[in-house]
Design goal:
It contains nine helices and six strands. It has about 220 residues and is α+β, with helices and mostly antiparallel strands. It has a six-stranded antiparallel sheet with strand order 2-3-1-4-6-5, covered by helices on one side. It is elongated, with a radius of gyration of 23 Å.
């Protein structure tokens, strides 16, 4: 038998922004209960009063990671340098047996030009190549025989140095991305290594995105 509590938990599980607002006590329980009433009623398959939903909201047990605000703030204060690069191009190719051969040639070129931006990510069906616009012709030379699925330009890359041990901070990436989402900043690509986090955005959004990321260190 489905319960009101289960219905509320199911809804909140899919709305992390709402969970955080509840945890920070900046949301009106009565108004939220009325807003959720149709969804909860559908879940339990019978009409539910707002008072029952409000009680379930007040008894809601927040995920452990939500409560670790102090841990995240500790890591945010240790964020390193922020690097911005403009005029970035992104190419998406279909994965083939010869694609890695083209990538190897590209790596050889960039080993002699280390100051240029270069990133390569491989998925199951396709791979992305992101490079400085100054060397687009080199891509055409090495990847000319590959199947190009898309090509985007006028992008900017913002790279952030993360503190050592950042993998221990629950929700670190969530809070980075949340700040960008709240300001309606769409991400074209996200790239990360153990201690470095890079986003690609349209050049029209780079100043806003930079301000958000810089604000995390404040």
């Amino acid at each position: 038998m489905r319960t009101v509590t289960q219905g509320v938990e199911q809804i909140l599980k899919n709305q992390p922004f709402l969970v955080e607002a509840l945890q920070r006590k900046i949301i009106n329980y009565s108004a939220l209960a009325e807003e959720l009433r149709p969804q909860v009623s559908d879940f339990v398959r019978k009409p539910i009063k707002s008072a029952a939903i409000m009680m379930a909201l007040r008894r809601y047990k927040f995920p452990i990671g939500i409560a670790e605000k102090g841990v995240r703030e500790h890591y945010f204060k240790q964020l390193g340098d922020i690097t911005v690069r403009s005029n970035i191009h992104s190419f998406t190719f279909k994965n083939t047996n010869s694609l890695l051969g083209s990538h190897t040639k590209m790596l050889g070129y960039f080993s002699d030009n280390p100051n240029l931006f270069y990133a390569f990510t491989r998925g199951i069906l396709e791979s992305n190549l992101m490079i400085s616009g100054a060397v687009v012709e080199v891509v055409n030379r090495f990847f000319g025989k590959q199947e190009l699925l898309s090509h985007h330009q006028e992008l900017s890359a913002i790279s952030l140095q993360l503190p050592l041990g950042n993998y221990k901070a629950v929700g670190l990436y969530y809070h980075l991305l949340k700040q960008l989402a709240w300001r309606d900043i769409a991400l074209y690509e996200v790239i990360s290594t153990a201690n470095e986090f890079t986003i690609l955005v349209e050049e029209a959004l780079v100043e806003q995105a930079f301000a958000v990321i810089k604000g995390l260190k404040a």
